[in-house]
Amino acid sequence: MLIQRETNTNEGTTSLSYLYIPYFFSPQIAHKNMTNNTDAATALKQTLERLDVQRKSLEMEGEAIISELTFKPENGGAPMGIETPLVDQDGYPRADIDVYRARELRNRLAIIKTDIKSLSSQIEQSLRQLALLQVRTNSAGHLLSAVVV
């Protein structure tokens, strides 16, 4: 809910300001939606757990790719590297590495980084929604506390 209010300044002018009040600050609405809030909170917690598992698995895959790209080969050559050139000084593909594999790994690493950013954004949004749902009321339905994000 958005409330508009006028305030008078010392110079005699009037200014408008807006105050945002989330819907759950109404004790009647908070009490009425309490069962819906607990169901929604449970669903959000399950979603957060699922998103966290996905994020962790992507992070583990990314670490494995970085490990492979930065591993120094036994023949003494330079590692494939994450951003090192895949061609030699003359512009030919490097003979000491598997260029196709390096490109494939780098591409997958870029995809993983993008997916992790997306998942982190979804996790942040879900955490905000969960915080908004955590309104505690007593048996009479009076608002005791609220978490505001």
Protein architecture, described:
This protein has 149 residues and is of the alpha+beta class. It is built from 3 helices and 4 strands, in the order ββαααββ. The strands form 2 sheets. It has a two-stranded antiparallel sheet. A two-stranded antiparallel sheet has the order 3-4. The N terminus and C terminus are likely disordered.
Question: Summed up, what is this model?
Answer:
This protein has 149 residues and is α+β, with helices and mostly antiparallel strands. It is built from three helices and four strands.
Number of strands: 4
Strand content: 5-15%
Spatial shape: elongated
Helical content band: 40-55%
How many domains comprise the coordinates? 1
Distance between the termini: 15 Å
Query: Mean pLDDT, as a whole number?
Result: 77
Biggest sheet features: 2 strands, antiparallel
**Count of helical segments?**
3
- Strand order in space, largest sheet: 1-2
> What's the Cα radius of gyration?
27 Å
Low-pLDDT sequence parts: 1-5, 17-34, 136-149
The helix/strand class is alpha+beta
Q: Element order, helices and strands?
A: EEHHHEE
